[in-house]
Every structure is written in structure tokens, then in C-alpha cells.
Design a protein that fits this description.
By secondary structure, the protein is mainly alpha-helical. The protein is built from four helices and no strands.
Length: about 150
């Protein structure tokens, strides 16, 4: 195994490896956003569960149970989104390692780096689709809640 000792090769290896870091920044921002949505979903579900527990047995809580079901679905989508974003970050991290090692060590691993990077991008795109689905469900829940209240008034 040959390690590069000249500064130009090491510098070029670092330049190659730094480019995917920008995607890692986007992934970190998305994880923060999605984690915030998960926290709100959990808070709302706890509030509904407390209302259900405090309700009299004769009081139907059908609307609350429907909303809880939707919140569970949203929670699963958000958890899937976080998992996909985590896999994306791992793939991008491995891409960085592969690019750096491919440039500084006498190894031909650029094909593997390409596969890792593309896998990371696919995970990111799937996470974006999950995020879109969750936000659409959340928006539909808002419309459902407004229509229900309007009918009961």
C-alpha cells in the first residue's frame, strides 16, 4: 500500500473529499427540521391521550382517536425519514473516506465512491419524499379539523 507523501496529492485528496460535505450540511439541516416535527407530533399525541384518559366514558372521542391514528402515521413517516437521512449521512461519510483514500493511497476505489455517493443521494431523495408525504398528511389534518369544528358549531 502506497501512501502519498507529496503535498499536491494530499491537497487534491482533501479537495475531492470536501465536496460531499456540502450534502452533509443539508442532511444535518433536514434532520433538525424533521426532529422538530417529530417533537410536535409527540407533544400533540400526548395531549390527545390525556384528553381521552380524562374524558367521561359516555363522551365519544371518535375525532380524537382519528387524529391519534393520523399522528401515529405521521410519526412513522418522520422516523423513516430520520432513518433515511442517517443512512444518507453514513453513505456520504464513507464517500468522503473513499475519495480521500483513493487519492492518497494507491487504491482504485473511485467506483466504490461513486456508488456510495449515489446511494447517499437516493437515501436523501427518499427522505424528501417521506417529508413531503408527512407534510401533506399534516395539512390534510388541518383541513379535516376545520371542517369538523364548522359542522359542530
Amino acid at each position: 500500500m502506497f501512501f502519498a507523501t507529496d503535498l499536491d496529492t494530499v491537497t487534491h485528496g482533501i479537495q475531492l473529499a470536501v465536496a460531499p460535505v456540502f450534502l452533509l450540511t443539508a442532511v444535518a439541516g433536514m434532520i433538525g427540521t424533521v426532529a422538530g416535527r417529530l417533537a410536535r407530533i409527540i407533544d400533540r399525541a400526548r395531549l390527545l391521550e390525556d384528553r381521552i384518559d380524562a374524558a367521561a366514558d359516555s363522551e365519544p372521542m371518535t375525532v380524537a382517536f382519528k387524529e391519534l391514528k393520523q399522528l401515529r402515521l405521521r410519526g412513522r413517516l418522520v422516523n423513516t425519514c430520520i432513518a433515511l437521512l442517517t443512512f444518507c449521512a453514513i453513505m456520504i461519510g464513507l464517500t468522503i473516506v473513499a475519495l480521500f483514500l483513493g487519492e492518497t493511497i494507491d487504491l482504485q476505489i473511485f467506483r466504490m465512491a461513486s456508488i456510495l455517493f449515489l446511494s447517499g443521494v437516493v437515501f436523501f431523495l427518499l427522505a424528501l419524499l417521506g417529508f413531503l408525504a408527512e407534510t401533506l398528511i399534516a395539512t390534510r389534518m388541518l383541513k379535516f379539523g376545520r371542517n369538523t369544528r364548522a359542522r359542530s358549531l
